[in-house]
Amino acid sequence: MWFFVMIALVNGVCIVTSRTLNGSLAQSKNAFYASLVNHIVGFLFLSVVLIFRQELFVVDLRGIPYIAFVGGIIGAFFVVINSYVLPKLGVTLTTLLAISGQVVSGFVLDVINGHIGSSLTLQLIGLLLIIAGVFYQYFKVD
């Protein structure tokens, strides 16, 4: 279990580092350019990984539902938004706001899909603490 926790923590470092680098690129060009460069480099990196794993030509797109491809559009938009707002809000506030949006939308989806169970009160307390932290950070920055 600790292995997966460590991977998740490293993922968090990667996200913040990527946001920071894309924000710098967006300042020198623009947010759409930063997203394009991000995704081209990512595509090339993953292509090399798949070539070395000999999996590049094993991909069969025919069985994938069309709606699954919307994830790529959302991912590109995610990078554009982060690249645009990070230089204006800073790394910490941008990260807090993004995580808050993820937690709130995840909570709403869990409620809609009936996956809350008995922990509703604890999850609401957690949401309120996150929102309070975001407001604290926002007013602290100003």
Q: From the helix content, strand content and strand pairing, which structural class follows?
A: mainly alpha
Compressed to H and E, one letter per element, the order equals: HHHHH
Stretches where pLDDT is under 50 for at least 5 consecutive residues are none
Task: Please indicate the count of domains.
Answer: 2
Explain the overall architecture:
It is a single chain. With 142 residues, the chain is mainly alpha-helical. It has two domains: 1-89, no CATH class; 91-141. It has helices at residues 2-28, 31-52, 70-89, 91-113, 120-141. Helix 1 (2-28) crosses helix 2 and helix 4 runs antiparallel to helix 5. It is globular. The mean pLDDT is 86.
List the keywords.
142 residues, mainly alpha, 2 domains, 5 helices
List the helices and strands and how they pair.
Elements: H1 2-28, H2 31-52, H3 70-89, H4 91-113, H5 120-141
Keywords: Membrane, Transmembrane, Transmembrane helix
Protein name: DMT family transporter
Transmembrane segments: 31-52, 64-85, 91-112, 119-139
Outline:
The chain is mainly α. It has helices spanning 2-28, 31-52, 70-89, 91-113, 120-141. The protein has 2 domains: 1-89, no CATH class; 91-141.
